[in-house]
């Protein structure tokens, strides 16, 4: 093992310097404010969870979990996502009434990365979970809230790709016959390896009609017109119902006035294996990865002893900030430079300005070596130097 450098950080961990920290706070505040406006209540869960509960329930791969042992020998994990911990809380403490719960969170999650990956191992998610509502209206609410929150954060250029995991599974299972074959073909979709998908389909021992159906499946992208084409491909009732859910979803999103941000992509699948129905990913033109994703996960709470439906979404705060670029608004900060004999006057002035909502730095001039460098950092500078009434010796 090579010796670590003094300033080296663990793989995938990042520092947030003042500018980026301030930006995160600004965006986080906008998202949280909009989420609260929709009636969601924020919740906190431990950073550490038991591997046997949240670790195994999470859809994150085992090799991406940070594991450690407590003093009793139990295996713990740093939470790899927030959906599984909230499912644990909901199943154990909240689901005593037959009412949907609308919960929200803003928290860091942890996923171990390979050295060549170059991706963060710790990042912040802001998201919501609607637990106990199995209607398509709840799925529509997720999408409408996601769109509204992004707009409130200042993002204009974005699009949601919407699909249905149940449709993909039913179509593939009907044609391929076994779960193993379904998973093998689905992997090409997750990797977005459409060339590999086509080659794999051609290699399967299928009739020409079934092969053509699987190839035509790749073309199910666009507006509401793809719904009719999807209905023509799938034959069983479960698959048709999954498609008709998307038709009802389109009507709901239209009622919210948010349809302009929606495109259907019925080839959409997720690495989060607990998704069972409508799911979506959020893209912005400036970022090569999804800035958020969500969907229905009706089977997850069964792992915690409760059988109920649920849906939700999460934003990746780092990717959202990248999509936003430089924020138009910066909070002005003033500086009061003072000498020892005018300290009391400076403190009174700073208190008055802070009470009025201003951000103020109070700086003893004897602690500043470069006056010009100091004053250039702030929007406004007040000099209280020397005896009261005397002008400072500075331009």
TrEMBL record:
CDD domains: HisRS-like_core. It is found in: Cytoplasm. GO terms for biological process: histidyl-tRNA aminoacylation; L-histidine biosynthetic process. L-histidine binds at residues 81-83, 111, 125, 129, 274-275. Residues 21-332 form the Aminoacyl-transfer RNA synthetases class-II family profile domain. InterPro entries: aa-tRNA-synth_II (IPR006195), aa-tRNA-synth_II/BPL/LPL (IPR045864), HisRS-like_core (IPR041715), HisRS/HisZ (IPR004516), HisZ (IPR004517), HisZ-C (IPR053846). GO terms for molecular function: catalytic activity, acting on a protein; glycosyltransferase activity; histidine-tRNA ligase activity. GO terms for cellular component: cytoplasm. Belongs to the class-II aminoacyl-tRNA synthetase family. HisZ subfamily. Required for the first step of histidine biosynthesis. May allow the feedback regulation of ATP phosphoribosyltransferase activity by histidine. This function is generally fulfilled by the C-terminal part of HisG, which is missing in some bacteria such as this one. This is ATP phosphoribosyltransferase regulatory subunit. The lineage of its organism: Bacteria, Bacillati, Bacillota, Bacilli, Bacillales.
């Amino acid at each position: 093992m090579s010796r670590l450098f003094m300033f080296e950080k663990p793989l995938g961990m990042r520092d947030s310097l003042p500018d980026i920290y301030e930006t995160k706070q600004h965006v986080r505040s906008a998202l949280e404010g909009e989420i609260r406006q929709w009636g969601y209540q924020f919740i906190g869960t431990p950073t550490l969870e038991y591997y046997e509960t949240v670790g195994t329930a999470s859809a994150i791969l085992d090799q991406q979990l940070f594991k450690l042992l407590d003093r009793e020998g139990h295996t713990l994990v740093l939470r790899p996502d927030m959906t599984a911990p909230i499912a644990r809380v909901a199943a154990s403490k909240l689901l005593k009434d037959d009412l949907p719960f609308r919960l929200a969170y803003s928290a860091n999650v942890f996923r171990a990365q390979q050295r060549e990956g170059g991706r963060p191992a710790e990042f912040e998610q802001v998201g919501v979970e609607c637990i106990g509502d199995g209607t398509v209206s709840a799925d529509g609410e997720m999408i409408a809230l996601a769109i509204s929150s992004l707009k409130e954060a200042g993002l204009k250029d974005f699009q949601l790709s919407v699909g249905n995991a149940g449709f993909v599974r039913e179509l593939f299972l009907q044609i391929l016959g076994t779960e193993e074959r379904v998973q093998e073909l689905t992997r090409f979709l997750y990797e977005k390896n459409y060339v590999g998908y086509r080659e794999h389909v051609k290699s399967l021992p299928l009739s020409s009609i079934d092969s053509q159906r699987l190839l035509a499946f790749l073309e199910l992208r666009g507006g509401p017109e793809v719904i009719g084409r999807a209905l023509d491909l799938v034959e069983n009732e479960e698959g048709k119902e999954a498609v008709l859910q998307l038709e009802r979803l389109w009507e709901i999103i239209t009622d919210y006035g948010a349809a302009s941000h929606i495109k259907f992509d019925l080839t959409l699948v997720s690495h989060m294996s607990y998704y069972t129905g409508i799911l979506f990913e959020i893209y912005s033109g400036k970022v090569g990865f999804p800035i958020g994703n969500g969907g229905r996960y009706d089977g997850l709470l069964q792992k915690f002893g409760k059988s109920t439906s649920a849906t939700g979404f999460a934003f990746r705060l780092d990717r959202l900030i990248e999509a936003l670029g430089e924020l138009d608004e910066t909070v002005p900060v003033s500086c009061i430079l003072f000498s020892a004999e005018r300290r009391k006057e400076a403190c009174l002035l700073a208190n008055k300005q802070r009470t009025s909502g201003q951000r103020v730095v109070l700086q003893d001039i004897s602690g500043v070596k470069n006056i010009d460098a100091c004053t250039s950092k702030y929007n406004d500078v007040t000099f209280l130097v020397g005896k009261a009434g005397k002008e400072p010796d500075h331009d």
